[in-house]
Amino acid sequence: MSSTGSPASPAFDLADDVRAGRRRAVDVVEASLAAIAEREPELHCFNLVLADSARQRAAEIDRMVAAGEDPGPLAGVPVALKDNLCTRGIETTCSSRILAGWRPPYDATVVTRLDRAGAVVVGKTNMDEFAMGSSTETSATGPTRNPRDPSRVPGGSSGGSAAAVAAGFAPLALGSDTGGSIRQPAALCGVVGMKPTYGTVSRYGLVAFASSLDQIGPFATTVADAAGMFDVIGGHDPADSTSLDRPTPRVVSVLGDGIEGLTVGVVRELLEGADPDVVARITAAADVCAAAGAHVEEISVPEVRLGLSAYYLIAPAEASSNLARYDGVRYGLRVDAPDAASMNVATRTAGFGAEVKRRIMLGTYALSAGYYDAYYGQALRVRTRIVEGFERAYHQCDVLLGPTSPTTAFPLGERLDDPLAMYLSDVCTIPSNLAGHPAISLPFGTGDDGLPVGAQLLAPALGESLLFRAAAVLEAGAPAGTGGAAGGVA
Q: Considering 63, 151, 427, 458, which has the largest number of Cβ atoms within 10 A of its Cβ?
């Protein structure tokens, strides 16, 4: 049995084999790099593949094992990092021209924790520029393609990380979730993706998009691997002022506890506008919960209908503030001009893509004199209403259930010229970010087009234990052939 207990945990089983000397880390990493070499030109999951440093790290882990040392619970496991997580001395671009060539002088806290756990970073993954997008098509380095159907998007903004796991390039990856950027691509690529409670995973070293919404979380092929990854990266960090100074829920130990006696609420509003085949899968997921002994009921949280409008005022406003630092003086790209003001304009014009510029302008307008209270202030009041709506729901239910995305993966280019249609991709995920609550997406069958459908579970703040208990039950009851990686590291 693996260190994560009875549910399937291929990444941690792999680490157990390395720690016990049954497999060599160098062989595991070579298998990962071979898988990347085979399909990366087609899929473009990575902005940077770190083959040399990954091989060196794997050799170091094998030396530790030979010397009788324990490299950690993720010994030798290949991990992919979203390219907005700082890695010391390694280019970190957020898939933007404005940060091309920037090498941070420090590691993000989650990167440090992965290193201490023995993980091997194999690359920095492609993403929507500065995490602004739902399809990984706004990247300055070009789009990522969905491994399940390369004519389709992988979702976004963490599409590179989701696709890397789905393609079997790495058993685990990290992404960031501001409005659904872990869960939505996880759903579209057919893998597990989890957003923690705000403050349970350190944001130190995450290049900020919207600071009150951003959270780092895991991608994996199974719920147990996602749980193990969360246990590794979670916990208080004094370097992050928003980090909760209290014990982080441990989740691996509860995966087998089941959900008998719990109440699962199917959120009516999250089903509104979803494709009929997606609704059918969520209905089937609710039946699995009922068969496992949970009480299942339909519940209304009408406030979630307000989430999209509030988010697209709050997030751009925070982005406008956070991205003001990219001025041609301190970071990355600099386009010379006769004076400082002209240089600043020229640098930002050349360095930012269209979607980032759109959101900066939206946010700047929402924060401007005469409009602040009407737009940003009102959005904050709506955010409070959403929190209150969820509080009422959790007095009635232990966990909530709905779709992760209203559709399966859509064709590349289909929504690029229609921002509203693109923004609607996140209508089911945004409410959890506004509330700061944990949520998880796991694959649950396929739609009529044969592409993955994601079931989303939501829990109250610090309810990760409940979340993973329910996720393990749904995973066990999912239709045959659901999820998993398409080859690669095993």
A: 458
